[in-house]
Amino acid sequence: MVLSLEYIEKALICKSDLEEKFLLDALQCVYHEIQSKGNSSVVTSIICRISALKYKSELVVNLLRECIVASRIFIYSDMLGGVDGAWGSIFSDVAQDCYSRPSGIVLTLYQKKILSEYKKHKRIVVSAPTSFGKSTIVPELIDESDKNVCIVVPTLSLLSEYVSRFIQDSRFRRYNIVYTSSQGLGRRNIFIVTPERMDIILDQHPDLGVDFFVMDEVYKISNSDDRSLIFANCLYRLANRVSRFYLIGPYYDEFSVNFLKRFNAHFLRFDVEVVAKNKLDISDVSRGNIYDVKGVKVKKTADKYKNLSRLVAALEGQTLVYVAKTHTAEVAAKHISSNLVESATCEGLIDFVSSTIGREWSLGEYLKRKVAFHHALMPKYVQREIVYNFNVGAIDTLVCTSTLIEGVNTSAQNVVVFDNMKGIAPLTGFDVKNIEGRSGRLGRHFVGENYFLVETPSKANVGNVDFVFLDSNELDDEVNLLVSDGDLTDVMKKRREHILHECRENGVSLSLLRSNKYIKVDKQLALVRYFRDNPDVMREMHFSGTLPVKETLKIWLRLAYEYLMSDSQKHEKDLPQNIVINKAIYYVYKNPTIYEFVNGWSEGSFDARVRKTFKLVTRIFEFALPKSLFALENIYNYMNGSQIDTSHVVSLLEHGLGKKHEVLLKEAGIPPNIIKKISKFFDETYSIRDIQAAIDSADLSRLTEYEKKILQRTLLGENR
Questions:
Q1: CB 214 within 8 A of CB 150
Q2: Contact 410/441 with Cβ under 8 angstroms?
Q3: Which residues are within 8 A (CB) of 637 and not within 5 positions of it... i.e. 6 or more apart?
Q4: 628 lies in the same domain as 671
Q5: Do 650 and 693 fall within a single domain?
Q6: Which range has the worst mean pLDDT, 123-137, 156-170, 189-203, 262-276?
Q7: DSSP characters for 132-152?
C-alpha cells in the first residue's frame, strides 16, 4: 500500500496504537522517498516519530534502521541502542565510515553538506533549526595551521559552554584559550568571547591576525536592542580581516545581500528539524473544559498559574517554561513547586545558593522540589549552575525568560509557553519558533513537545537579517563613524562631512569620537562643551594611582551617568541617579558580598531586594557604567592632556574583583566567593592553561565539596 508522507506523519502525531503493518508500509514509503528524492523535513519527522514509539518488532526495527542509514543521520541508530532487533550490515558500516571524522564525530547528512560548502567557499552563512548540529562542527572547521581563531557568542552562558568544550578537546591543547580581554596572548589563540570583549581585544591588538572566525546566533546583528550595534561592528571588523568565517543561527530566510556580496560569502539555508516537534495549543480551550496531555486529563481554570502547575504536573520528562519577565519567572516557579514533594537531588546547589546569595532567597525552597527559575539578571555563575543541574537531571522544571532561547543547550523534552511577550514587547513569529526549538535535544530525544497556554504569532522565520553598516542610508552618527569610507553611501558620506564640521566647531578630533564606540556623538560633544565651560571640575577630577578618593570618584560617576549613559539605561524608576552612584561607591570601596549588598536595601522582601541588587549589578555596574567611564576617561585625557587610568575602577565595577587572575577565574565561570577563598594560589596565572596547571598544587580545603566540583568541571572538564 502506497501512503502519502503527509498522511503517515499526521497518523503518527494523532495516534499511539498503530499496527505493525502500517509502520512497515510507512517505513517502505520513507525508504523509497529517500532513495528517489533524498531527505526532507517530513521524512526526518516520520523517522523520529516511529523511533520514539520504541516498537519491539524486529522487522520494524531493522527497516527503521535501514531508513536511518539512508537518511545519513546516524545518531538516531545510537539513540535506538536499547531497542531489540538484529542489526548490522557491511553497507551500513561503510556508509557510516564515509561520514566519520578523525575526531570521532559522525556527521549527519546536513553537517557534511555544510563542511563541503565551507571547503568550497571558505566564507559561509548558515541558517538552520536549533539542535541541528551547527555549533557541534565548529572544531572541525579549524585548520591545523590556524594561529588565531575567534568564536563570538551572545551570552556568557553559551561562552562557558564553548570554553568547556575546547579545554576538554585534546586537539586544541596547543592553543591558548582566551575568554577575557585581560588575558595575555600566546603563539596560538582561540578567542571565545562576547562581541563586547572581542571589540576590546581588537582595540588592544590592532594588528592581530585572525585566520578564522565564528559568530553564533548571528541574527542578533539586526535585533532592535542596545547590543545589536556591538554585534554588527564586531562582525564588520572581523569580516574585514579574515579570509574564512562561519556565521550561524536559526530560522532566518535570507541574509543581507550587500554583506554577502561585499565579503564574497555563500548563504546556506536548511529547514529540516532533526528533532521532530509536537504542538498542543491550549490557549483556545475554554475555562472548565478538559484537555488531554499524553493520556492525562487536565481541567482548565480561570487561574493562569493553576493552569500552568496542572499542565507541568501532567508532563513526562524535563520541562522549560517560557515567561516574559524576571518577576513572573519567580512567581511561576513558586506555583509549580507548591504541590510537589521534596527531593534531595539539589542539596549541593541549595547550600551553594544559600551561602552565596542568602538562605532567605526563595530559589532554595523551589530547588528542594526540583524546580528553578533562570533570568538574565542573575549572576552568570548562578545561571551556569542552574543549567548544569537541569542538564544532569537534578532539576525537573526550569522557568526562564528569553535567556535560554539564545543558543544555550539544555536537556528539556518539553517547552511550555506561558507568556506571549518578551519583556514589554510582543513575541515575534521568529521568537516563537526559537522557543519551540528548545524542546527536544538531538542525541536525547526523537520528539520535542511544545505546549501553548497563550496565543502566539504563527509566522515562523525572521525573514531577512539586515546588516546595518551596508543596508541603511540612515545610520546614526556613532554608527557612521565605524564604517570605512569605501562602504559609505553618498548620503552617508555627506553625513560624515557634517560630523567632521561638528568636530571642528568643538575643537576635537574625529578619532576621539570614534574611539568611544556606541556612545551617542551628541552626548560626547555636550560633555566636551561642559568641560570647556567648567575647567574647575576637570581639576577636581584629577587623581593619581589606580583608585581615586570617594569624592573624586563621585564626580566621575556623576558625569558618566548624566552625559554618557544612554537614556534606556537610565529609565529604571527604582534605581535613580543618587542610588546608582552611592551604591557604586559602596561596591568599589567595600567589595561587599551579594548577601551584604542585598541587606543594604531598607525596603522590600528579600526576593525583591535580590532582584534589585541583580538589576543594579548586571545592567549598570557590569555594563553601562564601565562603557561610559571608558568614554569619559578618553574625553578627559584628550582635553586635559593627561593619562588618568580608570581601568581598576572599571574592573571593580564590572567584576567585583581587581586582580587580573581573579578576573580570569571569574570569566571562566568561577563564582566570586570561591575565588576569594583560593585567589592566592593563582597569583602567577595568566591563561586558562596556567590555571589548570596550578589547581593540583592549590590548597582547596576551604572549599565545600560542591564548590570543588564547580572548580573541577569548569576548569578541567566533567571527566577529569
A1: yes
A2: yes
A3: 643, 644
A4: no
A5: no
A6: 156-170
A7: SSTTTTHHHH--TT-SEEEEE
Q: Give 3-state DSSP helix, strand, coil % of the chain, rounded to 5.
A: 50, 10, 40
Number of neighbours of residue 84 by Cβ within 10 angstroms? 12
Closest to 41 measured CA to CA, from 73, 77, 15, 79: 73
477-485: average pLDDT: 94
Domain match, 291 and 164 both: no
d(CA 367, CA 363) in angstroms, rounded, equals: 6
Confidence category of residue 690, pLDDT binned at 50, 70, 90:
confident
Q: Rounded to an integer, what distance in angstroms lies between the CA atom of residue 173 and that of residue 549? A: 44
Q: Is 162 a member of any domain?
A: yes
What are the cell numbers at 369?
522540589
Residue type, 508: V
Q: How far apart are CA 351 and CA 390, in angstroms?
A: 16
Q: Model confidence over 245-284: pLDDT tens digits? A: 999 999 888 999 999 999 999 999 999 999 999 999 999 9
The angle formed by the CA atoms of residues 587, 327 and 383, to the nearest 5 degrees, is 60
* Helix segments in 549-622, DSSP class H: 550-559, 577-590, 594-598, 606-615
Indicate whether 250 and 281 sit together in one domain.
no
509: cell is: 578630533
pLDDT in tens, 360-406: 999 999 999 999 999 989 998 999 899 999 999 999 999 999 887 77
Whether residue 229 is contained in a domain is answered as yes
1 burial level (CB within 10 Å; 0-12, 13-18, 19+) = exposed
Domain containing 286 equals 276-452
Do 293 and 404 lie in one domain? The reply is: yes
Residue 336, all three cell numbers: 509549580
Residue type, 568: S
How would residue 20 be classed by pLDDT, with cut points 50, 70 and 90?
A: very high
Residue closest to 112 by CA, chosen among 99, 122, 102, 103: 99
Question: Cell numbers 590592532 label which residue?
Answer: 206
In which residue are the cell numbers 571642528 written? 504
Give the model confidence (pLDDT) of 530-553 as tens digits.
999 999 999 999 999 999 999 999
314: exposed, middle or buried (Cβ count in 10 Å: 0-12, 13-18, 19+): middle
**Which 8-state DSSP code applies to residue 712?**
H
d(CA 409, CA 437): 10
Q: Based on the structure, what is the number of domains in the chain?
A: 5
Q: Cβ distance 628 to 648 under 8 Å?
A: no
Last residue of a domain, one of 56, 73, 98: 98
Q: What is the mean pLDDT of residues 330-358?
A: 94
List residues bridging with 191 in a β-sheet. 150, 178
62 with 145, same domain: the answer is: no
Q: Would you state the cell numbers that stand for residue 213, as one nine-digit string?
A: 572566525
Residues 6+ apart with CB under 8 A from 481: 496, 499, 510, 513, 514, 521
Co-location of 351 and 234 in the same domain: no
Cα–Cα dist 670/201, whole Å: 22
User: Is the same domain home to 249 and 128?
Assistant: yes
| Alpha-carbon span 63 to 277, nearest angstrom | 23
Contact 592/616 with Cβ under 8 angstroms?
no
Gap between the Cα atoms of 718 and 720, Å rounded: 6
Cα 41 to its chain centre, rounded Å, is: 26
What confidence score (pLDDT) does residue 47 get?
96
pTM for the structure as a whole: 0.92
Across-strand partners of 275?
A: none
| Residue the block writes with cell 526576593 | 607
Judge whether 462 lies within some domain. no
Computed over every residue of the chain, the mean pLDDT equals: 91
Q: Count CB atoms within 10 A of the CB of residue 664.
A: 26
